Amino acid sequence: MLGLQGYLIISTLLFAIGFFGVLLRRNTLVLYMSLELMLNSVNLALVAFSRYNNIMDGNLFVFFIITVAAAEVAVGLAIIVALFRKCRSLMVQDLTRLHN
Amino acid sequence: MVEYFYYFFAALTLISALLVVVCRNTVNSALFMILSFLGMAGLFLMLDAFFLAILQVLVYAGAVMVLFLFVIMLLDVEATEKSRPTWVTLLASLLGFVALAMGALYVFYEPGSAALFSQQLPEVQTMPTDAAPMAFTTSVRSFGYGLFSKYMLPFQLAGFLLLVAVIGIILISKRSLHSDNNNKKQ
Amino acid sequence: MDFISNLSHNEQFLIILLTPLVSALLIALFLRRRGTLAMTVSVLAAFIIMAVSLNLLIDWNGKAFESSMQWMSLGSFHIDMGFYFDHQAALLLFVVSFVGFWIHVFSLGYMDDDNSQARFFGGLSIFMFSMLGIVLANNLFMIFVFWELVGFSSYMLIAHYFDTKEAASASKKAFIVNRVGDFGFLIGIVWTYWHFGTVNLVELKHMVGVDPSLIVAGIAFLLMCGFLGKSAQFPLHVWLPDAMAGPTPISALIHAATMVAAGIYFLCRVDFLFPAEVKNVILWLGAIMTAYAGFCALGQRDIKKILAYSTLSQLGYMAVAYGLGYPGLALFHLACHGFFKALLFLGSGSVIHACHHEQDIFKMGGLIKRMPVTSICFALGTMALCAVTYTSGYFSKDAIIEAAFLKNRSVYWVVYGAAFLTSVYMGRLFWVAFLGKPNSEKAANAKESSIFMLLPLIVLATLSVLGGYTKFWPQEMDDVFIHQLHYVYETIGDLGLDPAMLLAGIAAWALGLLITFFFYHPGAKEDRLEQKARPLYLLFKNKLWFDEVYNWYVAKVQDRVANVFGFLDLALISGVAVRGTAGVVGLFGIFFRGLHVGNLHGYVYWFLAGFVLFCAFAFGFL
Prior knowledge:
Strand order of the largest sheet of chain C: 1-2
Structural class of chain C: mainly alpha
Mean pLDDT of chain C: 85
Radius of gyration of chain A: 17 Å
Distance between the termini of chain C: 92 Å
Helix content of chain A: over 70%
Largest interface: A-B, 70 and 88 residues
Distance between the termini of chain A: 54 Å
Oligomer: heterotrimer
Order of helices and strands of chain C: HHHEEHHHHHHHHHHHHHHHHHHHHHHHHH
Low-confidence stretches of chain C: none
């Protein structure tokens, strides 16, 4: 049987991959998707802990995370669309209005 | 037997995630993301969180990623990512990845943590009882029990949050009449 | 008058002290542009002071009066303000208020064509306030506060014609030289407080009376420095001749009758603190000054500068009297000198005003025909200054000379020679300026001055002639000196030298006046000494090069030291400390501003760095 360790390693790696994506990609949409990956990794860790401690709270928390993540994605995409209209580009290096 | 499922789903999740990150085509990235979510759902199933597995597929893969795809198609990005990232960026990102992974994984190989992780999967009930309402069960009823007793406030707030999010999105996406006349291309 | 008599002593002193302050405040705040109104306010204040002072003196029962009030306290240390009224204060109060009032009246006439009358009269009021503070003070701190205030009023009034370069630099010179003396003065006062535990004059006198071994020569020497600065004695005498750049009433009031006398008055006040060694130093400094100033006066052409050197010389006499151990005689000469020197300055002011600000005596001449009243008063003042027999100067100055004869023979010859010099330079002045024929347009057109200017002249002339008769003096005032005066007369009388002294005195003034009459012809155009013995004349004119030496010292030594300190101040304090801290903060700002790269990935890397640091810390690597 796989211990808690296994699931946590997957969660950690997923998180690291998500972070790698945030660092690497310059397309805003793909960047945002990597962020979602990071959120997902947290979901997995929570469920694993919840299962191994025989408690429901972790699952409930994941429930809320999914809800909030959905709302957040919607708002974030709306912002990206508005930004695209303003700056005519999705590339991160063109979004420098806060420079200095 | 179970290990094979575990390895399969784990590999599915991780490799899909990696492909999301490295893929040139945005649509492909989104589709690989959906695949990764499916792998996650499988992992949830292995952890006896059936409701959450369905929720993951329905909401995340079904709604969120579809939204992503809509936006990708809406924004009509054509000449994106034709240029490869520079070597510096790649190196820095890899370093970041390594740093983060090492830092986090260090926890598992610290002396004294082995006892923490080598637990067996405890047995679970199928229905919650009054004696232990928050015990882990495989039924949806526990969700009900928890959401409407202990997590009542976050539940209401989540509803409120969704309302606010909807209003916000409508506001952000609204085009003013001014820009309507100016932006003909839209 | 009844109303004033019913006030207590304290209230009367407060009125005397605060009336000029109120007048000055009124002028400064409201009457800056109303010259006539300012004049009225100021003269009214002076009249009130004189009236209340006279009333006080008449009503006084002769007992010393002291009252004190705590002004400021820091822990166990406190500074008091109070009044101490004894016979010395009574004498000086009379001199200051009386002469001050008549000079105010004179200024009404003299400053009638001036543009900034309000400023002048405001300054006069502030000066009266400060001087009366010194006269009435009961402790050394209060004296010091008013000492500085008097210095400030002097600075302000000398710079009345501030658009001329010489007035501006003269006022600065006066203030700075005074400050040098006051530095020693302040250290002396602090030392006094440290040594005795109190600065109250009454308490100090009591402590020293009980235990004379408490006297420290160092304290007395430092207190003497204040006297040297204020009364313009050697080596701090250089400011007084330059101070003549101020208007003539100021020269009369401040630099003849009152402020420069404040030094002598202070010495007499703290007489009990001075041991014999320090008095000896004062004696010789005064003696040298009497002669030196007399020589310098022979090299001057400006009427006011001659009178200024004469003041220096007479102050030297007062210092000699004090140094011999007769402070009462010094105060007596102070009072008489106040009368006739103020008269002489006011007379010269009348002459200057009539000649449209011509001050060179060789360009005047024949004034006696055109300005008879002024000339006669001036003549009376000259006679008093030369100690012509039975004028007031005769009584006071000859008393000092006789006291010197009794105590210290060498000093006697010096001051006797100085008396001869006095009549020489005063004779030069009078014969050249007032007799003969007019030597310039301005002198030819001079006419007699207005009643405002003549009335004080007449009053002061009367006092110069009659003031020496101690019979006329009320007992409250002459108690200061009458015993010492009688002691000197009796001792000389016992030695049988009465007639000899009289003859010697007559010889001094008569010979001087006669010689100058024939040497400098009346109404001369050119200085004959300059023509006949030019090197000698130049020697007198250069005043022993004191000014040049001081200028060299200030320019070469002091300025360089000040530049070093200025550089240190600029580099260390404002550069490193002030701008340095600002710069460091600025560097922080630049650093944090650099974090705003505007690039999203930059922010993410910073996030990663923070996270790594946190993990290292959490895992115990840091």
